[in-house]
Amino acid sequence: MNDFKELPELREMCPTSSRKALGDGAVLLDLRAAADVARVGFAGCKVIAIPLEALEERLGELPQGRQIIAVAETPEGAKKAGYFLLYQGFERVAAMNPGLARWVAKGFPTYGDTAALGGSCGAGCCCA
Hints:
This is Rhodanese domain-containing protein. By secondary structure, the chain is of the alpha/beta class. The chain contains 4 helices and 7 strands. The chain has a 5-stranded parallel beta sheet. A two-stranded antiparallel ribbon has the order 3-7. Strand 5, helix 3 and strand 6 form a beta-alpha-beta unit.
């Protein structure tokens, strides 16, 4: 038996596009460690915080009918989670790239000490 499942291409969204989608009802899936989420995070939108390593066990907390935008410590972590969700049958999934540091740099709503995030989002940002 072949367990291979053809998956659609995972959509990547910059923080600006993500913020617009969140305003239209999407849910942000924050996959960072609980301590990091407690220190600083996204505000002004619906956020579900599940550490990346706990995602498989906590899938039931995610809404099937809404777009989910995954964000993690790294773009690779967000992509990994996004493809996992697609494999699990979620249809409206995207990965935020680059992530929280760029969200902060754009001046979007946050809570906590954003100074701890340091530098920029890195090269290749689609919304500089």
